[in-house]
Amino acid sequence: MAVQADHALRDAGLRATRQRRTVLAALRDRSDAVTAQDLHGELRAAGEPVGLTTVYRTLTALADADFLDVFVREGEQAFRLCGDQHHHHLVCEVCGKVEELEADQVEQWVREVAGRRGYQVTGHRADIFGVCGECS
To answer: Which segments of 3-135 are extended strands (E)?
Structure first.
C-alpha cells in the first residue's frame, strides 16, 4: 500500500509525506464517503498527529486528480477512494455507504436517453441515492 500511496500522491503532484500516506491509508478500506472534518477527527482519536488543513488539502488534491470520488453530504464534500475503472454509485442516505456499480447498464441507458433527444454524450455521472439493506 505504501508504494501505491506514494505513486498516487506523486501523480497528484503531492509529496508522499507521512501525513498524506496516513490519509490515504484511512480511506483504503472504507465503504462510506467521509468529510475532511470527520476523517480528521478519526485520525486524531487514533493518535495520528495530522492537521485538519493537511487532511482537507490532501483530500481535495486527490479528488482534483480523480483519485477520489466526491459526494455532497449534508452540504459538505465527502470523499471516497474508488476503483479507477469508469463506474457509478449507489449511495445510502442513512449511513453514507457507497457501493460502486459497473458502468455497463448505466451506459446503455445514457446512450438511449441521449440519442432519443439528439444528444451526443461527452460525459456523465450517475449516483443513485436511497437506503441500503442494512439501514432499511
So the answer is: 34-35, 68-73, 76-81, 87-92, 98-102, 127-130
* Higher pLDDT, residue 83 or 37: 37
For the stretch 116-129, what's the b/e string if a residue is b when 16 or more beta carbons lie within 10 angstroms of its beta carbon? eeeeeeeeeeeeee
- Percentage of the residues of the chain whose pLDDT score is greater than 70: 96
The architecture that CATH gives domain 87-130 is 2-Layer Sandwich (3.30)
Question: Which CATH fold topology does 2-81 show?
Answer: Arc Repressor Mutant, subunit A (1.10.10)
Domain ranges in the chain? 2-81, 87-130
Helix (H, G, I), strand (E, B) or coil at 68: strand
Three-state DSSP class for residue 49: coil
Q: How far is CA 125 from the centre of its chain?
A: 13
Q: Per-residue pLDDT tens for 17-39?
A: 888 889 989 998 888 889 999 99
